[in-house]
Specification:
3 strands; 151 residues; single chain; 4 helices; mainly alpha; 2 domains; 7% strand
Length: 151
């Protein structure tokens, strides 16, 4: 029943204009297509932007491994001394994996970590900057420890 069903059938003055003329309430196909196309354009703009905000699983794993390495460096620095700033990545890893009876908490890294460096620019790598490990993202030049195959 229309909105004005309670009104007398002869007196439609209280009904909306479209019902007084015998029209129907609704949406035309053209209006529906315009709304759908506007929503499609908004989605086409918003979806790629949202995907850039969420880090990939590889990036999350690389960040986790980088934090693990830097935590071991921090523990070593607190217990023993500063690491050699001119050392290479495999040398730093070997030092952090060495068991030292005088050093509380050593070894700071497990002995099963891979200590080979890579210059493959398609993977996340950890580079020793003299103080800590920093991440080299894919596409950047330089050598470092491959973070995704480290553990």
């Amino acid at each position: 029943m229309p909105v004005c069903a309670s009104a007398l059938m002869n007196d439609r003055s209280s009904c909306p204009v479209s019902l007084r003329r015998g029209g129907r309430l609704g949406v035309s196909l053209a209006e529906l297509l315009v709304v759908v196309s506007v929503l499609a354009v908004i989605a086409a703009i918003a979806v790629p932007l949202m995907l850039n905000l969420v880090p990939s699983a590889g990036e999350q794993a690389a960040t986790r491994n980088l934090n693990y390495l830097n935590g071991a460096v921090l523990s070593y620095n607190q217990a023993v001394e500063e690491l050699n700033t001119n050392a290479t990545e495999p040398t730093i890893l070997a030092l952090l994996q060495t068991r030292d009876a005088r050093s509380h908490g050593s070894p700071y890294l497990p002995s099963n970590l891979k200590t080979n460096t890579s210059s493959d620019s398609s993977v996340y790598r950890a580079k020793w900057n003299g103080r800590m490990f920093e991440m080299l993202p894919p596409g950047s030049a330089g050598t470092g420890l491959p973070l995704l195959t480290l553990m």
